[in-house]
Amino acid sequence: MELAGFLAALDRLTADDLALVAKSLDNESMADEVDWWRATIALDRALRHARTTRAAGLAAAQAAAIVQARAATAGIGPDSVAPVVRSAADVARGCAAGPAARPIVALLLEPWSAVLPAS
Fold it and tell me: Which of 17, 31, 50, 99 could pair with 13 in a Cys bridge, judged by C-beta atoms 3.0 to 4.6 Å apart?
């Protein structure tokens, strides 16, 4: 998924979409948590290798702000949406890393599969 497409999709999220992603993240197993840690470590390496760490930070901030704004519009408190914000930021960082990070992004997108179009 490209960064611009991901950010545009985030900007269309509804309260139900946010709840679906939050539920998916909440239902993750210990193995899923280990996979997430491995993915973020691999993503950090990919970002350094591609020299896109700053762009990834900006992308993460944009994604987080969009999800927070959508949640506020839907009347959802920041504590309830915090895992969704973190997840969106991780995906955005991966998108900023470029093609080499596509397998990592695919893993990070799993909790979003119910609300985002297939790419």
Answer: 17
